[in-house]
Amino acid sequence: MKTEVLIIGGGVIGASIAHQLAKYNLDIILVEKASDVCMGTSKANSAMIHSGFNIDGGTLKGKLALAANKVVKQLCQDLDVDLVKPLGSITVGFEESDLEKMKKTMENGIKNGIQGMRLLDQQELHEMEPHLNPEAKYGLFEPETGIINPFEYTVALAENAVINGAKVMLDTEVLDIMIENKTVKGVKTNKGNIEAKVIINAAGLYADKIAAMVEDIDFEIKPRKGQYFLYDKKWGNILTYTIYSAPTKVSKGMIVVPTIDGNILAGSNAEALEDKTDLRTTAEALDQIYTSTISHLFPELPRMGDVITTFTGLRAASSNEDFIIEAAKTVKGMINVAGIQSPGLTSAPAIAVMVEELVRAQNLELDFTPKANYEKGRKAPVMLAELSYDERNALIEKEPAYGEIICRCESISKGEINDAIHRPVPATNMDAIKRRVRAGMGRCQGGFCGPKVLDILSRELNISPLEVTQKGNASFVLAARNKELPLAEGDQKNEKIRI
Amino acid sequence: MKKLEYDLVVIGGGPAGLAAALEARKNGVKKILICERAPYLGGILQQCIHNGFGLQYFKEELTGPEYASRFIDAVEQSDIDVKLGTMVMEILEDKKIISVNREDGMFEIGTKALILAMGCRERTRGAITIPGSRPAGIMTAGTAQSYVNLEGLIPGKEVVILGSGDIGLIMARRLTLEGVNVKGVIELMPYSTGLIRNKVQCLDDFNIPLLLSHSIVEVHGKDRLEGVTIARVDQKLKPIHGTEQYISCDTLLLSVGLIPENELSSKLGCEIDTVTRGPVVNEKRITNIPWVFACGNVLHVHDLVDNVTQEAEIAGRAAADLINQAAAEVEKDVVIRHDQNIGYVVPQHIDALNNKEKTVKFFLRVKNPDEHVRLVVKDNFDQVLLNLKKTIVEPGTMVTFNLPRELVTKDTSSISISIAREQAE
Questions:
Q1: ipTM score of the complex?
Q2: Is the pLDDT of residue B167 over 70?
Q3: Do domains A89-143+222-317 and A384-467 have the same CATH topology?
Q4: Of the partner residues B85, B178, B184, the one whose CB lies closest to the CB of residue A497
Q5: Location of each CATH 3.50.50.60 domain in chain B
Q6: For chain A, what are the domain ranges?
Q7: One GO MF term, please (chain A) (predicted)?
Q8: B184 to chain A: which residues are within 8 Å by CB?
Q9: How far is B64 from chain A (nearest CA, A)?
Q10: Residue A465: pLDDT band by 50, 70, 90 thresholds?
């Protein structure tokens, strides 16, 4: 297989780069080792578009976040992606010292060009967020922060790239990079070799591993773990703005924020790790997050009960804490995009533009003339919940599957699930369906619709129910058919838990 | 949008909805519609292929589908309308119901009365926040039951079950009979939360260990579940360090409780009891909204379907009274209170002037197991109305008793129920 541009990684960064470069007459392949796009750091984070008020504008990540803020609205409009921006944030403080920090943050924000920030007195703070802990004293309001659904955003970027001719290869893991005469020639993958003129390493947590396939590198990606709580929509009205707790040295502060879908997301702590696959949640950390932040800010939010799920995100932090976006030093045709931790989701469109400049600077005989029939948009999938009753009826009349509700918690129809399986970037497993259409994302967490979604996947993909996975690879949902397993006979006893 | 008119709409075609509709029909309601979201009637009973149903109501032992079919047959022979594959999206205050299905699209149903019979759902892993990774192979016991009994598919080969709820116990036996190694059932509480008969018939008879006062402290595995770490818990239900034990398994089934499905009811404005998580009702199963009734597991989670049927019949009769304008207009509300040993009592209040039925049946659950207790019912004058002996009470089994109507007078304003250990004589 042969291409011009090979992008490694189907997170929001890889997808943004594919989307950006698909504007030109370039052959593009994006490879992703997971069974869907948006499966790593992009999937599990605070889902915010940071305005940059609390970021150091002198750093690369600061510059890119501020630049991206100027284009993200138009981009989301083009891609038919829900974005709530401006929504605004409030940083909440309890102590005198918090107020001092907030004043500094405000100065920083003003320096970064954020307009309309102001300090709130206790009364105004509680008028704006009546469910806040009554003991909260200080507030810093900032109007520009937004929220987005990172899955929807990443999928939209990748779909637009595919519509414009790029190819997305899922379940494709890069095993090595081929180099000749100090120039990259392509990659070896589990699906065979792919020749390429330029390789863009957007491998997230594994960007160091990929970069090191080409040359000795002077950076390392250390996963930093953050754990989150996701609350039922019935708590959706407990707050209006994105809420930061007063910042600490290592973090912009913990957050309690509304999600684009009307849930409440709260987290997260920061634990340095070695294991890049450690997505475990831990009781200690969850307890600590709940006690120190969630119940401290919003005492009404429960520890359990209306918690739909808890999850872990791994931030891909580089050794110097800034983004590393640069060409390889000793080999031509290799661009590394590494260390993309927060605000990576925000910065993605600006990162993609920067990568384009770096690719151009490689002078690789690539045709950068704009694509003649370029499509700047993408049609979002039909979401019945967003349509009027009459619009739904028109659809159901054409395709009755839109009248068959599969996921009762989120009211998702069979038609919407079928669509997700046949999109430009298809959903091919249970979690992929859940991320695309929210089937299984509600209160029952797939308890009722799981077997139905599995059945639809098996039929539409023409595979056995036993081949359907939760999230790709060997994550099979089921193990056998009835009457297939041998029964224990006679003295042959199965091992049980010892009491 | 298509518009239909009925006298009575029943949401849910499970045991509660079927019995309520039939009873309303028997009591003279002519135009009845059952909306069922599944493509078949019978609800969860259709996946409960084990026996043990109907001992009280039919005085014989039936399987779930057999029990359901008695009511389904009766509905099919009646002029009750049924819409299958039909999801109710919204209930409006002006007695209109918005539903959707493949044939009618989104459509509106006008009604005089509504019976809520949507049943319940299982509590999930998220709701109890088990720490650890997120591999495949973790599902609720009811989901596993649906795979095995409706689809003929087995979720895994080595199973650990968390929670001694009835569905988990039933599935321990069902999967063992399919050749699955069910390694054990882990229960957080110091007692089994399911029916005693299920512990005996589903675990003891198959040598499946039940570990009381244990919890899962971590799940392991990246793609598919590889094992769980369990630990003993102390009296505050916190894991005790040093008691951890790793159990390899590819499947974890959760049987950690059921929650009435009241999203539609809440949105409509039904007052919800924080303990039962079902609507607050009086003895006629009327919610705080006068044309809305609730029965079955949407009201409170029952132990036996026989009790669901009886309760649904009460709601069906009461809805018929409302529609036939036979309901008494003057009402005198009597509040039902209970002591700390009792988790909840249904109904939460009764009408002192309702003399339609000779007795009022109460359903309650105790918080903790106990033996040789007295159930005492008093009115607001401290007059003992009932004093009943109960040999064994436990949270998994509902306690029921009948209060004769004649004991409730027009002066009664509250009734209190207590359960306490019998005093040694």
A1: 0.92
A2: yes
A3: no
A4: B184
A5: 1-122+257-327, 124-256
A6: 5-42+150-220+320-361, 89-143+222-317, 384-467
A7: (S)-2-hydroxy-acid oxidase activity
A8: 496-497
A9: 18
A10: very high
A446 pLDDT band (50/70/90 cuts)? confident
Say yes or no: B283 contacts chain A, CB-CB below 8 A. Answer: no
**Residues of chain B found within 8 Å of residue A471, distances taken between Cβ atoms:** 136, 223
B54, two tokens: 């109907």
DSSP string across B349-418? EEETT--SSSEEEEEEEESS-EEEEEEEEEETT--EEEEEEEEEE-TTS-EEEEEEGGG--TT--EEEEE
CA pair distance A354, A348, nearest whole angstrom: 10
Query: How far is Cα B86 from Cα B143, in angstroms, rounded to an integer?
Result: 21
Q: What pLDDT digit, counting tens, does each position of A262-296 carry?
A: 999 999 888 888 898 888 888 899 999 999 899 99
CB contact under 8 A, B126 and A389: no
Q: Which member of A50, A126, A131, A422 is catalytic?
A: A50
| Fold annotation for B124-256 | FAD/NAD(P)-binding domain (3.50.50)
pLDDT of residue B134: 80
Choose, out of B46, B134, B258, B270, the residue to mutate when testing the contact with A (most A CBs < 10 Å). Answer: B134
Average pLDDT of every residue of chain A: 93
CATH number of A384-467: 1.10.10
Which secondary structure element, helix H or strand E, spans residue B125, and what is its range? helix B125-128
d(CA B360, CA B382): 19
Note if A50 is an active site residue. yes
Residue from B291, B272, B293, B274 nearest B282 by CA: B293
Q: Which CATH architecture group holds B1-122+257-327?
A: 3-Layer(bba) Sandwich (3.50)
In words, the CATH class of domain A89-143+222-317 is alpha beta
Q: d(Cα A498, Cα A344) in Å, to the nearest integer?
A: 48
Chain A positions in Cβ-Cβ contact with residue B147 (cut-off 8 Å): 451, 478
Quick one: B71 exposed, middle or buried, by C-beta within 10 A (0-12, 13-18, 19+)?
A: buried
Q: Is A471 on the interface with B (CB under 8 A)?
A: yes
pLDDT tier, B329 (very low <50, low <70, confident <90, very high otherwise): low
**Band of pLDDT at residue A441, cut at 50, 70 and 90:** low
> Which of B137, B152, B222 is nearest residue A482 as measured by Cβ atoms?
B152
CATH code linked to domain B330-425: 2.60.40
CATH of A5-42+150-220+320-361, one of 3.50.50.60, 3.30.1060.10, 1.10.10.10, 3.60.15.10: 3.50.50.60
Q: Which amino acid, one-letter code, is at A223?
A: P
With contacts defined as CB-CB under 8 Å, which chain B residues touch A495? 181, 183
Closest CA of chain B from A442, distance in Å:
11
